[in-house]
C-alpha cells in the first residue's frame, strides 16, 4: 500500500488503527499523529503519495509471532536510500491494529 494504492489500508487495518512514527515530514510537521482509524490512514497515504512521488519501499525481512509482527524495510527516493523497522500488533480478526515505525539514515540491507 505504500507503493501503490493507499485504499488497501481500509482492508488490512482495524477500525481503531493507530500508527506512531518516530520521524517528521521535511517541514517538521507530524500529520500522521492525527491517524485514529483505518479511514484516516487511507487518507494519509493518499496525501503521502502526493508528497513523495517516486518513492519506492522494499521489504527486507519480516517475522510474525502470533499477534505481533516485525518488518525491516528500505525506502528509495531518487538518490536517497534509507531504511527502517516497523513493529505491528494484530487485532483478533488478523487486521493490523497498531504500528510503531522508526526510520533511519541507512539501508537495512547493510
Description:
This protein is of the alpha+beta class. The chain is 16% helix and 44% strand. The protein contains two helices and five strands. It has helices at 9-12, 38-51, and strands at 13-21, 56-65, 68-77, 80-90, 96-103. The protein has a five-stranded mixed beta sheet. A hairpin with a 5-residue loop joins strand 4 (80-90) and strand 5. The longest helix has 14 residues, at 38-51. It is globular, with a radius of gyration of 14 Å.
Task: Record keyword descriptors for this entry.
16% helix; 110 residues; 2 helices; 44% strand; alpha+beta; five-stranded mixed sheet
Layout of helices and strands, plus pairs?
Elements: H1 9-12, E1 13-21, H2 38-51, E2 56-65, E3 68-77, E4 80-90, E5 96-103
Parallel strand pairs: 1-5
Antiparallel strand pairs: 2-3, 3-4, 4-5
| Total number of strands | 5
Given helix and strand content, the structural type is alpha+beta
DSSP helical segment count: 2
Please mark out the parts with pLDDT under 50 across 5 or more consecutive residues, or reply none.
none
Give the radius of gyration.
14 Å
| Oligomeric form | single chain
Principal-axis shape equals: globular
Largest sheet: 5 strands, mixed
What's a quick, concise take on this entry?
By secondary structure, this protein is of the alpha+beta class.
Amino acid at each position: 500500500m505504500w507503493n501503490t494504492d493507499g485504499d488497501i489500508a481500509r482492508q488490512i487495518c482495524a477500525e481503531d488503527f493507530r500508527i506512531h512514527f518516530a520521524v517528521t515530514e521535511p517541514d517538521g510537521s507530524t500529520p500522521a499523529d492525527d491517524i485514529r482509524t483505518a479511514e484516516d490512514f487511507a487518507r494519509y497515504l493518499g496525501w503521502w503519495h502526493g508528497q513523495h512521488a517516486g518513492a519506492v519501499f522494499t521489504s527486507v525481512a519480516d517475522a510474525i509471532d502470533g499477534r505481533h509482527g516485525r518488518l525491516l524495510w528500505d525506502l528509495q527516493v531518487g538518490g536517497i536510500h534509507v531504511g527502517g523497522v516497523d513493529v505491528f500488533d494484530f487485532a483478533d480478526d488478523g487486521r493490523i491494529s497498531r504500528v510503531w515505525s522508526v526510520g533511519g539514515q541507512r539501508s537495512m540491507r547493510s
